[in-house]
């Protein structure tokens, strides 16, 4: 228990120091609140927008988009990764394309998404999927390819067929790398969605990206910084509540 308290104390102290420095710069540094709002002003926006329901609604809209788009990206990425491993022809044609598309910034998909789907939810999902699927795909293929050949030979000697070999040997052995790729894909999906929500404006279903856009248009820096803080918190919680428990369980199972 003491170790857990000490572990949590340092980040809290650093956060308190950061807030104190931020407040001091705003109060004594002579910085315009339009350029840098104080922590109090930023917190005030968080409180007011939460009371009005604007911020909770935006969080729910963004989370619904990210979870659906990310789920589709992971499923497609795993499928492409498996096909690359199973088919030399598929690998030789798709992998170079995947490597090239992975380097393309996600914001580049937004204009094409608008031309194809208009200002719609489909355009949002398109940007999220195209921005994250390739990281999952390449990580899955690399993880499967890196499974020790000894495991596969031993399973074949014991009579494992192709389906059983893949299900009971290859996928479990490749799972740590696949999980790392899924975690990387989550980060790419978040960046892609923020780009899409800022660029593709759907005012009746405003997400966090739209709030960033509106804050910029209104010179409301407190709104921009507050929404950025919410995005950071969601990213931290998603890592701690989703990926860390899975990683810990995998470590326990694997010893």
Task: Give a structural overview.
- The protein contains 10 helices and no strands.
- The mean pLDDT is 85.
- The protein is 84% helix and 0% strand.
- The longest helix has 38 residues, at 162-199.
- It has 255 residues and is mainly alpha-helical.
- The protein has helices at residues 2-28, 39-52, 54-86, 88-102, 109-117, 121-145, 149-157, 162-199, 208-217, 221-254.
- The protein is globular, with a radius of gyration of 22 Å.
The span between the termini is 23 Å
Shape: globular
Class of secondary structure makeup: mainly alpha
Question: From N to C, what is the helix and strand string?
Answer: HHHHHHHHHH
**Share of helix among residues?**
over 70%
Note the beta-strand portion: under 5%
Secondary structure tally: strands: 0
**Unreliable stretches:** none
Alpha carbon gyration radius: 22 Å
The biggest beta sheet is recorded as:
none
What is the mean predicted local confidence, pLDDT? 85
In short:
The protein is mainly alpha-helical and 255 residues long.
Task: Give the topology, please.
Elements: H1 2-28, H2 39-52, H3 54-86, H4 88-102, H5 109-117, H6 121-145, H7 149-157, H8 162-199, H9 208-217, H10 221-254
What descriptive keywords fit this protein?
single chain; 255 residues; mainly alpha; 10 helices; 84% helix; 0% strand; globular
């Amino acid at each position: 228990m003491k170790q857990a308290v000490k572990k949590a104390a340092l980040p809290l102290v650093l956060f308190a120091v950061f807030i104190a420095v931020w407040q001091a710069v705003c109060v004594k540094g002579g910085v315009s609140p339009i350029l840098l709002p104080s922590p109090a002003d930023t917190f005030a926006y968080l409180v007011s927008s939460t009371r009005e329901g604007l911020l909770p609604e935006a969080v729910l809209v963004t989370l619904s988009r990210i979870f659906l788009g990310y789920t589709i990206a992971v499923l497609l990425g795993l499928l492409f990764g498996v096909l690359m491993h199973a088919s030399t022809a598929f690998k030789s044609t798709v992998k170079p394309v995947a490597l090239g598309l992975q380097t393309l910034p996600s914001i580049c998909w937004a204009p094409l998404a608008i031309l194809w789907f208009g200002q719609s939810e489909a355009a949002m999902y398109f940007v999220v999927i195209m921005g994250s699927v390739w990281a999952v795909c390449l990580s899955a293929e690399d993880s499967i390819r890196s499974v020790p050949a000894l495991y596969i030979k031993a399973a074949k000697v014991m009579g494992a067929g192709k389906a059983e070999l893949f299900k009971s040997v290859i996928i479990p052995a490749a799972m740590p790398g696949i999980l790392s790729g899924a975690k990387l894909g989550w980060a790419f999906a978040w960046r892609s969605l923020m780009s899409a929500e800022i660029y593709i404006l759907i005012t009746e279903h405003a997400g966090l990206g739209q709030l960033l856009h509106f804050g910029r248009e209104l010179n409301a820096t407190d709104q921009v910084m507050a929404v950025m803080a919410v995005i950071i918190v969601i990213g931290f919680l998603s890592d701690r509540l989703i990926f860390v428990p899975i990683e810990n369980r995998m470590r326990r199972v694997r010893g």
